[in-house]
Amino acid sequence: MSNENTLDLHYVHQSFQRSLKEEDDVVIEAYIDGYNELVKFLNLIGSVFSFVSSDVKSKIKVMEKHREGDDAIYYESFKKMMKYEKETCLHEKNGFVSGSRTMLRLHRGLDFIRLFLKRLSDSDDTVNTCTTCQCSYNETLAEFHPWYIRKAATLAMHALPTRPDLLKKIFGTEDRLTEAMTILPQTLQSCDEVYQRVEQLYTDFDFHGLP
């Protein structure tokens, strides 16, 4: 994994590619590896999404416990996890922290990150990053946040730097930025494929509405 001050898209791409299992499943460990790197994006763009980043860390800790526990075999992949929790009704059990519910939160976060990154890459240096971020947020994560979080997040986005400054903050030197822009399409494609697979699994198991 790269250092904490820059985002390594190559690592994200490799991890997400490694997570693709068979035709319709996603390996949880590889997914989390890629996600852990990708979530640096939230930290690097400033304090706007620090609440999301902090929530992600707590969710990943939950999954680590599941993957190290007595039922670890059922938490190797999304499909296996959902099948296990559905058949045993664990997702409805009081006091049990459902892995499917936990990963649903990460899944929603991935939707925002991939959309914002794509729009940043597709735009030119004159684009207003605040507007781009707000539109991406409103189309993804905002739906699942209470109004006061939506309000605070939307206001905080006004502090986002210009596109050139934001990209430099995310990727570091000019050379690293050039390299990142070269691999970004592949990384976004991996993000999309992983996202769509997981989205379909939540649909198949009727888990989109987990509270």
UniProtKB/TrEMBL annotation:
Molecular function per GO: ceramide 1-phosphate binding; ceramide 1-phosphate transfer activity
Top-level division of the source organism's lineage: Eukaryota
Glycolipid transfer protein domain sequence ranges: 28-170
A Pfam family it matches: GLTP
GO annotations of cellular component type: cytosol; membrane
Protein family according to the UniProt entry: Belongs to the GLTP family.
Name the UniProt record assigns to this protein: Ceramide-1-phosphate transfer protein
Species this protein is from: Papilio xuthus (Asian swallowtail butterfly)
